[in-house]
Amino acid sequence: MLRYFAKSALLLGITVVVMCGVYPGVLWLIGQTVFPYQANGSIVRNADGAVVGSMLVAQPFTKDEYFQPRPSAASFDASASASSAYAPSNYALRDRVARAIGPIATYEKKGQLVAPDVEVWFQTDKAGGNPHIVAQWADAHNSLAQGWVNADPTHGAYVDAWAKAHDAVVKDWIKKNPATPQPKAADLAVVFFETFSNENPGAFPSPVTKTGADGKQTTEIQPVKTGSDIQSIFFDMWRADHPDVVLNDVPGDLVTTSASGLDPDITLANAEFQLDRVAAKWADDKKLKIDDVRKDIEGLLQEKAYAPWGGTIGEKLVNVLALNLELHKKYGDPA
Asked: Which end of the chain is more exposed for a tag (fewer CB within 10 A), N or C?
C-alpha cells in the first residue's frame, strides 16, 4: 500500500515540477530569446527609455493633432477591462453614442456640420413643440441629470450654490420627498435643471475658462448657449425634432466600445473619418499647407493599414499608438 502511495506522490511531484516549473521556464526562455518584444507586452519607449504605451492596449489621446481610439467603457484602465454591457434598450447607450456623433455629424448633401444648427435649435428653447429643452431632458432622463452633477466636483459645487440661493425650492422638494430630509446635490439634480431652464432659457450650465489679469486661468460653471456640451448632450433631442434630415453615416467603431474597452486598433475608415481634423490641426500648428499635410498623413494611413491574416479577412485596421507615434516623429510636439 505504501509503495502505491509513494509512486503516486512521485508522479504528482514530477507533474508539478514539469507543468509548473519546466514548461513555463521553457516558454519564458523561448519568448525572451526569440521574440522578447512581444513576450514583454509590446511595450513602446521613447528616446529617453520611458514607457509611452503598449501596441496591445488602447490609451486616450485628447489633442486634435492625434487620431483617437475607440471609446472605452473601462476608461482605458487595463486593470479594469470591460464592456459597458448596455442593452440596446438602455437609453444610456443611445445617449453615449449620440454624444459622440453630435459634434461630428454632417449633412449628406451639403457635407456641413450639424452642430451649429443644433445650437440654433437649442437656443429657441423648444423641443417637440414644448418649451424648456433642458427641463425636458432632465425630466425624461433623471439618471443623466444626476450623472452630470456627479461628473465633476465643480458641478456639484454649482448645484450646492444654487440650493443656497433657492431655499424655498429646496424646502418644497424636501416636502415632496420626506425620506430625504438632507438632500445632496445629486438628489436635487432634476429640480435644479427645471429651475435653471426657467431662469436661463436656451442655455445650459457648462465650464467656462477665463484668464485673469495675473495671467492665471480659472474655470467656473456658467450658462452657455453654444459649445460642445450643447452639440453632444442635445443632439438626440434635435434628431427627434428633425427625423427627416438625412445625415452621413459615421464608422461604427468611432462611437462604439469594444468588448474589452482596450482595443488598440481602429478601422481604416475610422482613421480616414478623423483625417481632416488631424491634418487641419497639424497644418495650423506648423504653418503648413493643409493639402500637403493631408496628403502626407493619408499616405501614412495607407502605409500603416493592415488586415488580419495577411489581408485575407476582415476590414483594414490601423494601430492608433503606432500611427500617432509616426505623427509625432514627423511633426514634433503639438502646439
From this structure: N
